[in-house]
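Illustration 12: Transport permease protein.
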Amino acid sequence: MKALATAAAVSPWGVYSVWRRHADVYRITWLSNLLPPMSEPILYLFAFGAGLGPMIGSFEYLGSTLTYAQFLGPGMIAVAVLFQSFFEGAYASFIRLSFQKTWQALLTAPLSYTDVFLGDWLWATTKGVIGGSATGLVVVLLGLYPPVGLLYSLPVMVLGGMLFGACGLVTAGTVRIIDQVNLPTFLFIIPMFALSGTYFPRTNLPGVSRYFAEILPLAPVVDFLRWPYGLPSYWPWQLVGLVVLIAVAGSWAWWAIRQRIYL
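Figure caption equivalent — predicted structure in token form:
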């Protein structure tokens, strides 16, 4: 019980120190780390927006008339948040845990386990916000999203980054070899990326697949990022669900990584 209480102790300075350590590493390699994952949602935006947009034209979305590119833009912001935060939590944290032993080294400093965990989680969230903001700037420059909308969407990116960063940390804490990270990537992240309303309204999906898409964790993030064009009537329930998922995923990740380090 005493060991658990010690592990759960939190120091804001300790959390910041861990976050700052990751930010300093990122500052050295930011260009090579940012451009490859950022190129994917931006490429989708151009390829689908310019390629399919003229064929689709405009359509009604929650009472607003949108071009396909306007519909797609917020979806690509959500994809950037998803990819950046999940892969930072999954791959980068797994490497720091299993190969670099960064977690173990940090725990020899006057830091609690929770300081190190929260610092890592906060950094994964930060990567998601950086990715979403960079993609959002491109979407704004193309005239597909209002600039003030991007500013007010930052809290949504933070929530999305927290959720998918925690999902990545759960992965890092549960897989045993790095190849196993492919399992949640292809069984969870890719279906969510394709079906959550990023490329088309979920109402287009037939039968039970629509209800499956509605409960995917990326769906509320996509809907909230489209707030300048309207929100579903059930958005308060989506917000509550998002907060609950963050709490569940964060607690699971805390437990899984602690098991990996100490047991």
